[in-house]
Amino acid sequence: MFAAKFEYYKVNSVAEALQTLRAHNGAKLMAGGHSLIPLLKLRLARPAALVDISGILDLQGISVDDTTVHIGPLTTHQTIAASEAVARVCPLMAEVAGEIGDPQVRNRGTIGGNVSHADPASDWPTALTALNAQFVIQGTGALHRRVTRTVAAADFFTGALSTSLGEHEILTEIQVPVMNTAQHSAYAKMAHPATFFSVVSAAVVISMSGNRCTQASVVLGGLAPKPVRAASVEEALIGQDLTADNIAAAAAQVSNDLAGEVMGDIYASAEYRRAVAPVEVKHAIYHAAGLAHS
Amino acid sequence: MTTRIFGSGIRRREDPRLITGKATYTDDIKLPGMVYAAILRSPHAHARIRSIDTSAAAAAPGVLAVYTGADVEGVLKPIPCAWVVPNSDVKQVAYPAIAKDVVRYVGDAVAVVVAEDRYQAEDALELISVDYEVLPAVINPEAALGPNAPQLHADAPKNQAFHWVASGGNVDDAFKSAEVVVKDTIVQQKLIPNAMEPRSAVASWLAPMGELTIWNSTQNPHIVRFITCLVTGVPEHKIRIIAPEVGGGFGSKIAVYPWEMIVAFCAMKLGLPVKWTETRTENYVATTHGRDHIERVELAATRSGKITGLRATVYAGMGAYLSTAGPGIPTILHGLMYSGPYAIPNIRADVYGVFTNSTPVEAYRGAGRPEATFLLERMIDLLAVQLNLDPVEVRRRNLIPKFDNGYDVAIGLKYDSGDYQKALDTALTHTSYNRLRQEQQQLRQHGKYMGIGVVCYCEICGLGPSQVAGAVGFGGGLWESAIVRFYATGKVNVFVGTSPHGQGEETTFAQIIADELGVPVDDVEVVHGDTDLTPMGWGTYGSRTTVVGGAAVALSARKIREKGRLLAAHLLEAAEADVEYADGKFFVRGSPDKSKTIQDIALMANVAWNMPQGMEPGLEATTFYDPPNFTFPFGTHIAVVIVDPDNGHIDLTKYVAVDDCGRQINPMVVEGQIHGGVVQGVGQALWEGAVYDQNGQLLTGSMLDYALPRAHLLPDVETLSTTTPSPHNPLGVKGIGETGTIASTPAVYNAVIDALRHLGVTGLEMPLTPEKVWRAIHQQG
Ligand SMILES: Cc1cc2nc3c(=O)[nH]c(=O)nc-3n(C[C@H](O)[C@H](O)[C@H](O)COP(=O)(O)OP(=O)(O)OC[C@H]3O[C@@H](n4cnc5c(N)ncnc54)[C@H](O)[C@@H]3O)c2cc1C
Known about the structure:
The complex is a heterodimer. By secondary structure, chain A is of the alpha+beta class. Chain A is built from 13 helices and 14 strands. Chain A has a 5-stranded antiparallel sheet. Chain B is of the alpha+beta class.
C-alpha cells in the first residue's frame, strides 16, 4: 500500500501534458487518481512519472449546443449528476453519474479517467456506447505537431482496461448527442455490494412514437471485457409496441448478443451474469418507456 | 434532583474529537528519533524457507537493520496462547514472532526492515529474496482434520488443535426416543473484522532504566503488558502499555500479536523508538479473523414441537497458530450457549479446533455466541418447516418461562434473569407479525417473495467470575478495578482498568459517578488505556466493560459516599447514624438545612484541616470487583426481506430489534451499540466472507472484493427494549455490545430462507449473494 518511487509533474495545459508525456518514458496521466492511485499503492502499476492533469482548466466542465453535449474529461461524476443542463438534454448521463460508487467516488472520479481506465465493471463505457458518444483525442504527430482525432465509442473501447488511446495521447473531450423529445432512456445495474461497480448493467435509449418503439440502442456492461451492443434486442424492439410480452421477448434475445466472452468472478459467475442480463435489460426498457414494473 | 443522569440519553463526549479528526491514535504518535518498521510477509500459505538473502535490503538507502527469524529466535519467546481450555488436549504449538523454517499462512512474518522512513522500509522489503519450497495448503477446517491433509505442525497430529466436549442430560437417549429429528450442516464463513483503524505499535526502549513503553492499538493494555513480559523477558513493572485512541476492535485487537513484539525487539536492538502501522492490505491477512466453523447439527423434538435434544459436531478453524483467546471462542463462549433462551433438556457439543493455513482466528463481535445463536435459530426454523408450524409458535413452545434470579440450563450455566416471552411479544406486536404473514401470502400469490425471520436469543457476557475463568482455562482473572478520585475543587477522575475503544464508557461511567455522587456529569473525567496510570484490568471485550468495570466504578463511588457521610457527621457535629445522603448532599435527618455538599466534603477531605479521629485524608476509593456470575442479555429480532425471483436480489426492508440489557445507563449509547451490531451481523448474512483459493490465497484481499455493509443498503433499525435487571449486578446492567451481531445474522438469514420456503429451499451458504439465491430458486445446483 505504499507506491514505488515516481516523479511527479503538475501540468497546466494539454500542450504541456503532451510534452511531459513524451519526455518521460512510461509516464502516466493522472486525473482524479481514484483508479490509478490504488494500482500504484499495490505496486501493480509502477510508472516512472505521473503527469497530473487535474489542474488543466480547459479539460473541465460541460457545455451544450444544439446538437451536442461537450464534456471535459476532468469533469467529475458528481458535477455531471448535478448538472441541470445534462438532466435536460441527456438524462441518461445524469442517471448514470448519480449511481456511480458513493459520494466520495463521485466527487473525486472523473469521466475521462473512467473511460480511459476502461474497467469492464464501470458504468460510463456502457452508457456512452449506448449514447453513441464520440471521443476527442489529442496526440503528437510529425514534427511535434499536435494532432486531434475523434473516435466513436464502439472503437474507443477495445477490451478490458484497454482503449484506442495511444501511449502519448490525451482524451480531451467527450461529445454526446443531445437527446430529442421522442427519445427515452434508462440505466439498470446490478451493483457489486463492495464498490457499486456494475456486475451486470444495461443502458437503453429508445425512440417512441406513441407506444411503438421506432429506434433502440441497448448496450450491456459488466459482463464482458468491453461494452456489448445488444443488436438482437434492438432489432426485436424496433417496430413493436412496448407491451409486457414484447419487452420480455425482446430482452430474452440478449443471449444472442452474448456469444462472446462473459466474465465471472467469485461474486458472480459468467453463467449467472448471462442469466440475469435479460432481467437488467427488461428493467431498463421498462424504466425508459415509463411503464410500471410487473 | 428531578431528572437522573443515569438512564438519560446524553450525547457521547467521545464523539466531538472522533468526528473532527482530533483524536490521537497510535499512528499519530511521533517520538524524537523515531524510525519505521515494515514486515515482510509470506506470499505462500504453506512453504519451507530454504534461504533468505537480506543483504541488498540491508544496503538500501535509509535502512538501519533487517532481522529474520534467526535473529529473534531465543530472544523473543514464542507468542503464548492465553486460553488453554482444560480437558481438551490443547496443542500449544510454537508460534514464533518471525517464522524461521516454515511459513504457515499468507501473512506469516518472514523478516522485518527498519529504516529512517516508511517508504525506505517498504522499498527495502522488495529487495529481500526468500527461496521458498511451496508446500500443499489446507483451508477448510473439516478437511484439515482428514487423513490426507497437509500437516501444519509436527506436534499437532491431524492438525487437531484441541477436542472439547460439553454435555448435559442424556443426548443419545433423547435422539433414540425422538419423534422428529432435523439435521443440517451449517457453515460459519470466515470473517475479516475491518476495524476502521488498522493495527499499529510504537515501541520505545530506555536502556539505562530498562524500561519498555509500547503504544498499541489494543482492547486490553494490561494483558499486552503481561504477555510482553513473557515474550520479551522485560519484567512487568518495567513495561508500560498505552492504548491511545483505538479505532474499533471488534475482537481483532484482543490478541497480543507477534507484530508488536517484533517492534519491541527492534526498538531494544537499535535503541531507537520504532513505529509499525499495518496497511489495509496487510490488515486483511495479518490481523485476526472471526468465525470459520463447519457444524453438523441435529435437533430432536416431539411432534408437537417441544425440543428434546440438540447435538452438534463443530470443526472450528483456528488458523495457522493459536491466537491469544482463540480456543475459548468456539468452546466456552459457543458450546455452552446451545440452550439459548430455550429449555432444552439434553445437549452435547463436540468441538474440534483445527489448524489451517490461514490467518489465525480470534473473537469477532459476539465471539462464539453468534455462531451458537445461528445454529439454534436455524434448527428451530427447520423444525418449524418439518412440523408445518409457524416458526414463532415453535419458539414459544420452548422458551424458558420468566425468572428473576437464576435458572439452570442443562449444559451447566446459571442464567441470571430473563423474560423471553415478553421480548418476543413486544417484537411481534411492534411488527404486527400476523399481518406480515398475511401480506407474505398475498405477495406470494403475485409471484413476489417476501420472507420474515424471527430470532430469539440469549447470550452470555459480562465476563466474568475469575474463579470460572480459572476453571475454563482462561489465563488470567476477569475482575475489574476502578479508582475514583475526588479533588478539592469538586471535580472527579475515574481511573479504570477496562479499555473502551468506541463503546462510550467515557460518557456512561461519568453518568454512573454523577448519579452516585450527585455531581454534574461534566465534573467527571474517565481515564483509561494506560497501564502506568490506571489500575489493573482485563480489558474491553465480551460486553464486560460496563457490567464488570462499571460495577467497580459504582462501588468505588459508594465507598466515597460513605466516607463523605462520616466526615459530614463530624463537620455537622451530628451522630454518624443521623447523617444521610441524597442528591449530592449530606444532611442531618430531620433538619435538611444542616447539610454539607459533597463538594464541601471533598474540599475538607483533601485539605484535611478538620478530620475525625483516625480518618485518613483524601477522598478516593478503589474497588476490585469480581462478578458472582455472568450476565445474560436477551431479546427478539425480526427481519423482513423481499427477494427478487428473477435475479436473486435481496432487499432488507424492515429490521426490528427488541433487546433487554437490564437497566440502561444511556439509551442513546445502547441504541448505537445495537445499530452497529445489527449492521455487522447483516454483513455476515448478506455480504461478507473471506474467500480463499485452493492454495490458500485470500481472494477477498481488499475492500474491492470484501463487501462491508453500506448505509444505503440497510433499512432503519427500529430498536425497542424490555428491562429485566440483572439480579447480581450492582447496577442491574447486562452487556449490549454484541447482541446486535448475535441476533441479526440468523434473523436476516431466516428471513431469506423463509422467502423461499414455498420452493422447498431449506438452506444456503452465507453470504447470501444474489447468485446463490437465484440458483436456489432456479435449482441450478
Ligand atoms: C470504491 C470505488 C468505487 C467505484 N465505483 C464505481 C462505479 O460504481 N461505477 C464506475 O463507473 N466507476 C466506479 N469507480 C471508478 C471511479 O469512477 C474512478 O474514479 C474512475 O474510473 C477513474 O477516474 P479518475 O479521474 O480517478 O482517473 P485516474 O485514476 O486519475 O486515471 C485512471 C486512468 O485513466 C488515465 N487517464 C485519466 N485521464 C485521462 C485523459 N484525459 N486522457 C487519457 N488518459 C487518462 C490515467 O492515466 C489512468 O490510467 C469506483 C472507484 C472506486 C475507488
